[in-house]
Amino acid sequence: MSAFLAMGGYAMYVWPAYAVFFIVLIADYLNPSLRRRRNLRELRSRMARQAARQQRNPTPP
Amino acid sequence: MANWIPLWVHKLSSPPNFYRFAGVVRPWALALALITGAVALYGGLVLAPADYQQGDAYRIIFIHVPSAWMSLFIYGVMAVASFISLVWRIKLAEVVAMESAPIGAAFTFITLVTGSLWGKPMWGTWWTWDARLTSELVLLFLYLGVIGLYHSFEDRRQGARAAAFLAIIGIINVPIVHFSVNWWNTLHQGSTVRILGPSKISGDMLWPLLTMMAATKFYYIASLFGRVRTDLLSMESGKDWVKQIADAYGSASAASAGRAGAAEKESKA
User: Fold this and answer.
1) pTM score, two decimals?
2) B264 lies in which domain range?
3) Closest chain B residue to the Cα of A12, Cα to Cα
4) A-chain residues within 8 Å CB-CB of B237?
5) How many Cβ atoms sit within 10 Å of the Cβ of residue B204?
6) Do B55 and A18 touch (CB under 8 A)?
7) So what's the ipTM on this one?
């Protein structure tokens, strides 16, 4: 196992390369779901405001 | 629009339909990416023998080369989708083009960084201004240019149109990256995997490489579809189908946590 981790003396190049690969792709994958959650929350609060406004004056100007 | 295009294409390219379709496909694509990726990693890091010249350092190939292929492949997809969006004004093509750009930029960045980490022990330098490395760096700047141009307009559809032009013009760089190792005398090695004729790589090393290529393709589908779904929602936020989704999302999250309720209270105050 330690021989595997040592990568024949090239561990300091091989493992950072793999780390970059995974970190960048995970960040890329999570980004849209975070954006989506924020968008939906904003849309819901906008809808709630609209509904409240309509309740106050049912006939729009 | 042209009437030789089958009807199901029209139906699928309508935002609510594609939103649903992408939602179904996405988890499967991600699962396939994870499974094939795990198999490829096991084959590449454990089963494949060390290289007779490069020792274990060559194992960077299993992420470097698939990422480089993806950086070119995604550029092609982006340029084709840009062309379709400019000619036929299909909203979905526009979204696919603009959401491919960050994924392509991510793969290009990975290619450059892993290449640098491979170059240091093998060439003795992190970076050199040779044809392959420089053209790949130009590719990253093209991706960043497309992303930046898209976001620099107040009206996002106008931004998408401008960015689509840039994406189409920039396609000239893709063959330059690909053939740079043949056209110029470079430090970078030529291609070892060939579609025509036998590859110049041992089978033990070839199959993990090709499996990883499949994994990155699946990953691209999963990531792209997630991004497209998000974009379609915010683009069509006035439409009824989006309002229904927002309603469902709100009641689901209100049941699980009080956060949505708190956000609502904030907006009322």
Assistant:
1) 0.87
2) 237-269
3) B117
4) 39, 43
5) 12
6) no
7) 0.84
